[in-house]
Design a protein that fits this description.
Number of helices of chain A: 8
Shape of chain B: globular
Number of domains of chain A: 2
Strand content of chain A: under 5%
Structural class of chain B: alpha/beta
Helix content of chain B: 25-40%
CATH topology of chain B: Rossmann fold
Oligomer: heterodimer
Radius of gyration of chain B: 18 Å
Largest sheet of chain B: 6 strands, mixed
Distance between the termini of chain A: 29 Å
Order of helices and strands of chain A: HHHHHHHH
Largest sheet of chain A: none
């Protein structure tokens, strides 16, 4: 006869997953953020009066540093998202899943631990990026506004959770997983954009179209939908074949 | 007789292939069980279903009275047939992680076995050979005090010298009431330790029972019986 399940406190388990996710991601992300700030410092040494545009940047060696800094700044954001997505893919869908999914941790606790680590890194990523921009002397007035930070953070979370869902759906395919993932991207993006268009048609009367806070809330709502869909796929359909 | 693994009409299909075809199994408590069969017979699928890494297509499976889930994972240990180690850690980090998640994990036992096999705690998992990685995995599994150990090909990738140590480790380190299910092709190596066997062929259970009883009834060793059974079926 099947025994009954006991109710347990999920928080200690979420924190344990969070701890190991932070440890893993820190060894890649911290050097990237430190490098971004360091290159900004070098740029500042060349542009003591502040950066005056790309025209002057191409004229000298100092310009090469500024281009290098710009590339590193953008790359740090892209690499951060890639690191979180890769952690999800290898940790819950790849070979490492044989270790992680045998831990006495529920799928929900695994997901929350990972999402929390993403949320914890976002301020670090934003602060380092912003700090480097101030150091390099390219920070503009709108970079100081909280709404824009919130919007950036929301976009980041949405992209990561969108990728979680795409990977989870792709994993359901027995063959041609990459094609399945591309189809999933097209389908979910189309559905998201259709819904967004519908929402903005009605919401636009209440909030301004360019209201960063409203946009952030809508993005976070979509993140929640992607997260819940990923949870149900992992909980009920996961097959590590 | 208490059962630690109970399957009723358990079926698992992968697209067109049926990996398990409605098998009903009852594994007795305290036994060392050989899960035997040729490649593709469904051994790994059965263990993965018990570990909760696959969802059954039909039928039911219970591990120590629980459906595969958090509760069953707390009281059972599973070692897959592949290397799953996260390369970025050292052996010591991984031991700490296991102790962090499993209240029944015995760090002293793990350290002792690692020392016996000359694997340093500071060794990076990335730098270990495949054989040593498999040894580390087995040590991590056997360092837990659980009711059921499920080992999928635990000695397949290790050298013959280490095989004896590993098999003795498996048997010596378990509680006398704990059950060990070993899936392997190397029957002659594990036969002296077995007291119960399950023969799988094409997803169906073709033989199960106590080793001594089978030997008496057939007059053959398990290794010889296995060869006989599967030679007949393949011819």
């Amino acid at each position: 006869m099947e025994k009954t399940k006991s109710v347990r406190n999920p928080f200690p388990w979420i924190l344990k997953v969070f701890k190991y996710e932070m440890k893993n991601t820190a060894r890649i992300l911290l050097p990237i953020y430190v490098t971004t700030v360091f290159v900004a410092l070098i740029c500042r040494m060349f542009f003591l009066d502040g950066f005056e545009g790309l025209d002057s940047a191409f004229d000298s060696i100092s310009g090469i540093f500024m281009i290098l800094y710009s590339v590193i700044l953008v790359t740090s954001g892209v690499v951060s998202a890639a690191v979180f997505i890769r952690r999800f893919k290898t940790g819950l869908l790849g070979d490492e899943a044989y270790l992680n999914l045998m831990l006495p941790v529920t799928v929900g606790e695994h997901l929350w631990g990972r999402i929390l680590s993403v949320v914890a890194w976002i301020p670090v990523c934003l602060v380092c990026g912003f700090l480097s921009m101030i150091i390099a002397g390219i920070a503009k007035k709108y970079d100081y506004e909280f709404e824009n930070w919130l919007l950036l953070a929301s976009i980041f979370i949405t992209v990561v959770l969108f990728a979680y869902l795409v990977n989870a759906v792709g994993h359901l395919a027995k063959k041609h997983r990459k094609i399945a993932m591309v189809v999933t991207v097209v389908v979910i993006l189309s559905a998201t954009l259709r819904i967004l268009a519908g929402v903005f048609d009605s919401v636009v009367k209440i909030v301004k179209y360019h209201d960063a806070r409203a946009m952030s809330l809508i993005l976070l709502a979509f993140s929640a939908i992607y997260g819940v869909a990923t949870y149900f796929i992992l909980k009920h359909r996961l097959n590590l074949e | 007789m208490d059962s630690v693994l109970e399957c009723v009409s358990l079926t698992k299909k992968y697209s067109a292939k049926t990996a398990l075809d409605g098998i009903s199994v009852s594994v007795p408590k305290g036994a060392v069980v050989g899960l035997l069969g040729p490649n593709g017979s469904g051994k790994t699928t059965l263990l993965k279903l018990a570990a909760g890494l696959l969802q059954p297509t039909g039928g039911s499976i219970e591990v120590c009275g629980f459906k595969p889930g958090v509760e069953s994972k707390e009281i059972s240990a599973y070692q897959p047939d592949r290397v799953y180690l996260n390369d970025w850690m050292t052996v010591g980090d991984l031991v700490k992680m296991m102790a962090d998640f499993y209240p029944d994990f015995r760090t002293d036992k793990a350290h002792e076995m690692l020392k016996d096999l000359n694997i340093g705690l500071e060794s990076r998992l990335k730098s270990l050979s495949k054989g040593n990685k498999e040894k580390v995995q087995l040590i991590l599994t056997m360092s837990r005090d659980v009711q059921l150990y499920m080992l999928d090909e635990p000695i397949g990738g290790v050298d013959p010298a280490a095989r004896d140590y590993i098999l003795e480790t498996i048997i010596a380190n378990r509680d006398k009431d704990a059950t060990v299910i070993i899936s392997t092709h190397l029957i002659s190596d594990i036969e002296p330790f077995l007291n119960y066997v399950l023969f799988l062929h094409d997803g169906r259970l073709i033989r199960q029972g106590e080793v001594d009883k089978i030997r008496t009834e057939t007059g053959m060793s398990i290794d010889a019986l296995f060869r006989e059974d599967f030679k007949l079926r393949q011819s």
